[in-house]
Specification:
The protein is of the alpha/beta class. It has helices at residues 2-8, 23-32, 43-57, 69-72, 75-84, 132-145, 194-201, 220-227, 272-278, 309-338, 343-350, 354-374, 382-393, 408-416, 434-443, 455-460, 499-503, 512-517, 528-540, and strands spanning 13-16, 36-39, 61-65, 88-94, 120-123, 154-159, 181-183, 207-211, 231-234, 260-264, 284-289, 301-306, 400-404, 422-423, 448-454, 474-480, 521-525, 547-552. It has a six-stranded parallel β-sheet with strand order 2-1-3-4-6-5, sandwiched between helices. Strands 7-12-11-10-8-9 form a six-stranded parallel β-sheet. A six-stranded parallel β-sheet has the order 14-13-15-16-18-17, with helices on both faces.
Length: 554
């Protein structure tokens, strides 16, 4: 795979250094026939020779070295390449992980050894199997970053077994794999062309746009326009037009599976989408990010566009409108010529599968109905509380911001906070600091800031309230069921006798004492009626200090 990708990314010259650990790589490159190979014994000289070859046409040139200090002898050339923006590709063979640091000869910590003077440094896993995709993505990322967005050296470290343990062959193996394509739209500020979008969509009939978290809400009109043309899976952490969809993946029918995913933004709250899309054999995924990262929790990465989500989506909207207008013109001409004969066949050739979009529209509506019907209005629950608060917020005339803590809370936001933009610390998804982040936001705005949090996240971050600067625009809702309820969703913990005590963090604490010592208004709700009254008070009462509603759940 490594050798095949070197060729596909335009490496023509390879400098080979002697050694046994790298013998398989050397043999396969020399036998491949797609490379001009050059022999150098001294790795320091070899790396500088490769650097000199880069200077001819500024295309990537590889140098292959064995394990141990051989790699470090490349470092002077790598540093030079870094500051001269030369696409030098260093491929180092390494010992298996279990041999590192065990006084085995020719071993050292090679992974990231050149990290501070390379554009990209990757360490492949020493097992294939399920990690084949992971290794493929790492190699593609390193080779792309040797030339984009700025040329520079990269390091690919390859743990390998002893050559004597491997099957010997007179011919180098072939490997059929596709390179991950890269469109550097940001480098010159260039917009994607219609031909670029045609290439991305290719022959896709069932495309889906997946939108992860964004730093600010995407334009409502833009997203509404895109939804008319293709399926969009988004959450309130990015999109004011989002639809709840998590439950759809619990029993995903085949007619809802895409053949193309365009993935913009960052983290998604829904995890089921990752497993579902990763299992689709013929799926293609295009990643869009300002950094040009190769992130794809759905695997199947086919290409990367280095562009901000906002600018990409604006261009996508224009492209889809253009295609729709062209399709309508074609339909009109076809109608006048044939009086509608074979019209459906003509439409099928020109646009995406309309049945796919209709199927998802029905699925969204059924999921919304299921969620609404699942709420027992006579029983106090976190879902009932969130739904009721958002229903009441629609009548409020003041400006407000919504913060949801991680774990169960933000999943409730994805179900019942649609139509709003939600702030959440989804970068790493930790529960620490969720309340502090909301408190800090309340100090930077005159808008009312609402923070929804579970009990563990709240008690973990209770010092957020230990601040005399906080004012009445901060309103907190704590769901207290005396444990981490998110662990109920983990099937593997169902049989654990320690789940409640040590895993779910069972406790008997409440927030009353914390609010008292920090001069915070406190409301307790233990029944559905008390919750309704507490919510109204939380939303409408004017105070000079923050208020907290603690909802005690069964």
């Amino acid at each position: 795979m490594l050798v095949a990708l070197l060729a596909q990314y335009g490496v023509k010259d390879v400098v080979l250094c002697p050694g046994s650990r790298n013998a398989m790589i050397v043999n396969n490159i020399a036998e491949n026939g797609n490379f001009r190979v050059h022999r150098f014994t001294d790795e320091r000289s070899a790396a500088f020779a490769a650097l000199g070859m880069c200077g001819e046409d500024r295309q990537p040139v590889a140098v292959v070295v064995t394990s141990g200090s051989a790699l470090m002898n490349c470092s002077p050339a790598v540093v030079e390449a870094y500051y001269r923006h030369m696409p030098l590709v260093v491929v180092s063979a390494d010992r298996p992980q279990e041999e590192i640091g065990q006084n085995v000869g020719q071993t050292m910590l090679q992974a990231d050894a050149l990290r501070h003077c390379t554009r990209c440094s990757v360490n492949l896993t020493d097992a294939m199997g399920d990690t084949a995709y992971f290794n493929h993505r790492l190699v593609c990322e390193a080779l792309v970053k040797s030339i984009s967005p700025v040329a520079g050296p990269v390091h690919i470290n390859v743990p390998l077994p002893d050559v004597s343990e491997c099957e010997q062959s007179d011919t180098a193996p072939s490997f059929d794999c596709q390179p991950i394509l890269f469109r550097n739209a940001l480098a010159s500020g260039a917009a994607l062309l219609t031909s670029d979008f045609d290439f991305i969509f290719d022959d896709a009939r069932r495309p889906i746009l997946v939108v992860g978290q964004t730093t600010e809400p995407l334009g409502r009109m833009m997203m509404t326009s895109i939804r008319k043309q293709m399926v969009v899976l988004s959450e309130p952490l990015s999109d004011l037009t989002s639809e709840a969809f998590d439950g759809i993946f619990s029993n995903m029918p085949s007619e809802l599976l895409p053949d193309l995913v365009i993935y913009v933004g960052d983290n998604m709250v829904c995890r089921a989408i990752n497993r579902s899309f990763a299992s689709i054999g013929n799926l293609k995924v295009w990643r869009v990010s300002a950094e040009g990262d190769f992130a794809s929790p759905f695997m199947h990465l086919a290409g990367v566009v280095r562009q901000t989500p906002e600018s990409f989506l604006l261009q996508l909207e224009a492209y889809l409108k253009e295609k729709a207008a062209s399709r309508n013109n074609t339909m009109g001409e076809h109608l006048s010529d044939t009086m509608g004969e074979h019209l459906s066949d003509s439409m099928g050739e020109e646009c995406f599968d309309n049945n796919f979009l209709r199927a998802w529209t029905v699925a969204f509506a059924e999921e919304r109905q299921r969620l609404d019907e699942a709420i027992d209005t006579q029983r106090l629950s976190a879902a009932a509380t969130v739904a009721y608060i958002h229903e009441q917020l629609e009548d409020m005339e003041y400006d407000y911001r919504l913060h949801y803590a991680n774990s169960t809370s933000v999943r409730l936001a994805c179900r019942y906070a649609t139509g709003n933009y939600v702030y959440c610390n989804r970068g790493v998804n930790g529960i620490e600091g969720c309340v502090s982040t909301a408190a800090g936001h309340s100090l930077a705005t005159d808008a009312r800031v609402f923070c929804f949090t579970g009990d563990l996240a709240f008690f973990y971050d209770q010092n957020a309230l230990w601040n005399s600067e906080l004012s009445g625009n901060l309103r907190i809702v704590v769901f207290n069921d005396h444990r981490g309820s998110i662990f109920d969703r983990v099937k593997g913990l169902a049989a654990s006798s320690q789940r409640e005590t040590f895993i779910a963090g069972y406790h008997q604490a409440d927030a009353r004492g914390i609010t008292t010592q920090n001069d915070i208004g406190y409301i307790a709700a233990k029944t559905i009626d008390e919750m309704h009254l507490g919510v109204v008070k939380l939303l409408t009462e004017e105070t000079s200090r923050p208020m907290l509603l603690e909802v005690f759940l069964d």
